[in-house]
# Entry
Amino acid sequence: MTAHDVVFVLLAVAGGLSALMVVTARNMVHAVLFLAATFGVMAGMFLVFHADFVALVQVLIYVGAVAVLLMFGLMLTRAPIGRETLDSQSRGLGLAVSMALFGVLAALIVQAYGDVRVALAGPDVAAIGGSIFSQWVLPFELLSLLLTAALVGAIVLSRREAGETGQEDLAELGEARPTIMGGPEGVAEARRARQLRAPGDERETAGAGR
Amino acid sequence: MTLAGPLLFGAFIFCVGVYGVIARRNAVLVLMSVELMLNAVNVNLVAFQLRAPGDAALTGHVFALFVIAIAAAEVGVGLAIVLNMFRNRASVNVDDADLMRW
# Structure
């Protein structure tokens, strides 16, 4: 057992535990922090595999950008805390499905690659860059197009219409919902939504007054 | 180093992600579980490139980078959709998003 093996086992245990904490934590902020820890552990694992560039990109994008984005997402959605509100009724089903999947995958992996030993070596950054811009240049350009489309889509989805204060939105909700969904159910739901939104709206108007 | 270790770790993280997608109710937590699954795939890609040095190794690295970029785009659009859902329904529970159910 080499030093690399020891580091890998330590990282694997830490990553597995923090991944488990991500899906079982009762506090959403803790879940995001454990997710960032898992990403960091995986970056360390990539370093063990001599994948330096992938490790750096992992830290930059996952730990840096995605974790912060998720943190903003849960701050903006005012998520309640507690296991009952975060988990659905299908916890047992999820446990059964994932354990069965892991059993099948683990059996297959041990059977197929149980005795394969590999030497730790990886290409350097220059080789990766050359490969991206020669062999993989078309997928790379498609990827940049996809990123642009995703960016524009995210902005369009999340911005309010010009001149909208949020109040029109509510009025629209109260009237339009019943015609779409039909029946008193929609009205009750719109009323509930309005009550839920009321504190935030008051704060908004108070801020505008100042 | 044996190849089975990283592969088993990737499979474990993937299954944890599957559990999270099924068992969680909050849409942001479901997105986080999807991120875990994508990361498990990355571990597999980087582990398999150890087995075939040369051009194939480069392919493993390039694919891992592509997966990271696409995951970033996915989480951006996903969060925008979650924010819109919260604005329209005052809830981020995936159980409540049943407007298009049969």
Summary: Chain A touches chain B through 94 residues (CB under 8 Å). Residues 45 and 113 of chain A are 19 Å apart (CA to CA). The mean pLDDT of chain A is 80.
